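Sample intake sheet
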Amino acid sequence: MKDPYSGNSGIHPSTGPAVTTTNGAGPRNLQLFIMAQDGTVVHCMPGYWNPNDLSAELDFADRLHRVWMDRSITEPQKKVLFAQEQLRHIQTHSADVVARSELQGFDKQFCYKNHVDDAIANASLIPADWHDVPKEAFKTTDVILHERMAKQPFVNYSNFNIASFVNYGSHHYDKHEKDLEPETMANIRAHNLRDVLHETGDPGPKARVNHLASKAAAGYPNPITKPREVEKAMVDGFWGYARKADWPKAERVANYMIEKRPESPTGHEMKAVIAYGRGRHAEAYFHSYNAIRMGSKHPTIIGIYQKSRTAASSAAK
């Protein structure tokens, strides 16, 4: 994360959800290297990849690995075969693979403004005012990937030029975090993934604190899974408070969500989690019931509903 080529798309909480995106998106943040046992790179997938497309590329990497291990072929011959196969493989990509591999808008702008020429298919199609840029003006990431791999045939990982391999992506993606409410922003920063990563085997004090907080929050089922289709920052903030059992702050977020989106079950889901975490089973039953009645199918809420109903019934007897 300290290398100059590394990207930073703002705050990514360690509790944040996984989402799908386009093939090759986020190349500076992630590279999936497939290597031989001696450290030779047989393939590398930059950024995110659709599972089906990744599977096909892994099969391709397996074939390249067989070439590298074949003692009947000289190393210069292997390098020629490597480059040829990388370029040939582009022709096997289906229309669906190509469609899933379009460059993201901000990456297109980065490539154009920074003269990343091997990512541009036809610069004459790009208007000066940057409106309605046709997708044909840029190569797709599946093409960029294989063309760049062809230039580094069977290179050892220690000599692989990652910076030049991933430079079709923007260094920074503005997620408009400066517009978030300050308290939520502070909580998100407290769970920034970069801040809990360490270069040594020592998890570090922050990681240890997060681990203890997770253990303390184990009183309710599946606490990491979050409701979907809600304001991501508010949900992340809520779960951060819940893991620390900071119920007053969690309550404020829940009240805010109920006021902002009264038609959504999200606020009631949060209220159910808070009540269950505080041991108020009748209250947890009430809010989880309301959330489910409003359409919630969240496994955490269903679990709380079932457990709190049993607990509330037992208490009533």
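Comment: The chain has two domains: 31-165, 179-316. The mean pLDDT is 82.
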